[in-house]
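User: Please go through the entry that follows and flag anything odd:
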Amino acid sequence: MLQNILQNDRIKPVRVINLSSGSDGNLTYIESATTKILVDAGLSCKEIELRLSLLGVGGSEIAGILVTHEHSDHIKGIDVFATKFGTRVYAHEDEWNALSSKLKKVPQTQKRSFTCAPFEIGDLTISAFKVPHDSACCVGFNIENQGRHVSICTDLGAISDSILENIYGSELVFLEANHDVKMLQNNINYSASLKQRILSSRGHLSNIASANAILKLARKGTRRVVLSHLSKENNNPTLAFETIKAILEREGTYVGENFNIDVASTMPGKIYKIS
């Protein structure tokens, strides 16, 4: 069914499909008229191929993999996938020292470094921006094609106005809503140090922190946000959605009118068409 939708709707220049989100693995597919890329590849190569096949896409068609950071739920499949298909792997220049020790099979000729200056993969213009997280150099991405923008901003402990400046105006934003603070604090299976790491400014965004950022995005023109990287242990899709919806509507932004929220999961989600 996904394949048929893609084949029958070729006039839409940009399509975005989240194929997996969360600590079990992160994988997002972006397709323009001429270019197909992945953002992160945190599943096994076999699973990545399977999920791409649902879209009628083969691994050899992927022009590049953008890496947010070196944690395993974002890079698990890159070594095998990139080696098998000759895919270029793009990471921030400050990230490669940490990444190279984990991606030992990817040939040097396929490794690409970027800074926070815009660069191109095919007809997509990519702009990276640094976000605070407990990794070597975690980044978010703003991806543009013919004036259409999608932004991916997950794995960050705090979201400042300077970070938001990078994604204001994006039609579609994937934004972290990792945990409910009370659920995390009451989780007896998490150590005090782990809780502190998650709650820190280099950890992960809570539902409330995400809601406050979404309010600003909505006021700057964003019309759809996909809540991403939810914790299995300290959050759930209904809780995240209802918490954020309540905060937005209390401030006068009503979900379902000119603004929408979805929740990403570990399974392939909606096909978003940016026109």
